[in-house]
Amino acid sequence: MEHRAFGGQTMYGRLRRVLVRPPGDAFASADPDVWHYTERPDAARARDEHERFVALLEDSGAVVEREALPSCGSADALYTHDPGLVVDDGAIVLRMGKPLRAAEPAAFASAMTRLEIPLLHALDGEARAEGGDVLWLDERTLAVGLGFRTNEAGLEGLASVLAPRSVTLVPVPLPWFRGPEACLHLMSAISVLDRDLALVHLPLLPATFVRLLESRGFRLVRVAEDEFDTMAPNVLAVGPRDCVAIDGNPETRRRLEAAGCRVRTYVGREISLKAEGGPTCLTRPLLRDAAGDTR
């Protein structure tokens, strides 16, 4: 079998290579009122939390790329999932809906060049799309949340690249919820953890999308209602039903384990709860096994 260095169009294939960025000075000095954080992060604790989180990724077998992403002055730059998307034959540079994050796509493009991952396309003009709004339902179907961070022009830009690659895009309208300043991505309400399993917060998902998931054979595990605000829906699959989640959501964890999931947790008070970014947000998968690969 040919050795691959990048690719993988699922949310749950075994994670083999991943891009992260430790919290830097911009994160530690972020003004909560400007960045919509609950309070200013503690720098030392944030670094320690991130190191322990990365250790979970490495323990799962992933090669962690820590140094590739250059500094760009964005407090949110540790959330490497959002400025780009890696598909089977290269990378797509996205365009941020949060204006304060405008410098991150160029840093992502630089990282892809350093890692020798081909750049396929960069969104431009009025197009806006963030990685937290794009969700693989299978290797040929990409759900795209349309809200404050991703717009119709962004959807069209992604379609222009992916449709010729036999990928169907499914638009998913997102609600107003807490307004444009809050971070509501599609993946704030759903995590796909296996080919037929998803963790969901149903009140934030359109009924049409829920019916689509059910028609595709997904079992839907509901997040405990009182654990939504502690980011229970944001769960990273490092393999099929092999999960990393933020600590402190015991009922949702119990439900996942009852569905056959292994769940490991990290303390994320600084790097997650204060700044609206869970385990998926902290990672940009560069290489995942293909669906059905059991190596």
Main features:
three-stranded mixed β-sheet; 295 residues; alpha/beta; L-arginine/glycine Amidinotransferase, Chain A
Structural features, described:
The protein has a domain at 15-174 and 268-288: L-arginine/glycine Amidinotransferase, Chain A (5-stranded Propeller). 24% of the residues lie in helices and 24% in strands. It has helices at residues 25-28, 32-35, 43-59, 104-114, 152-162, 207-215, 250-258, 269-273, and strands spanning 15-19, 63-65, 84-87, 90-93, 119-122, 134-138, 141-146, 168-173, 190-194, 197-200, 219-222, 235-239, 242-246, 262-266, 284-288. The strands form five sheets. The protein has a three-stranded mixed sheet with strand order 2-1-15, covered by helices on one side. A hairpin with a 2-residue loop joins strand 12 (235-239) and strand 13. It is globular and about 45 Å long.
- Corresponding CATH superfamily of the domain at 15-174 and 268-288: L-arginine/glycine Amidinotransferase, Chain A
Whole-angstrom Rg: 17 Å
Shape: globular
Unreliably modeled segments: none
Return the CATH architecture of the domain at 15-174 and 268-288.
5-stranded Propeller
CATH class of the domain at 15-174 and 268-288: Alpha Beta
Task: Count helical runs.
Answer: 8
- In spatial order, strands of the major sheet run 2-1-15
Bin the helical content.
10-25%
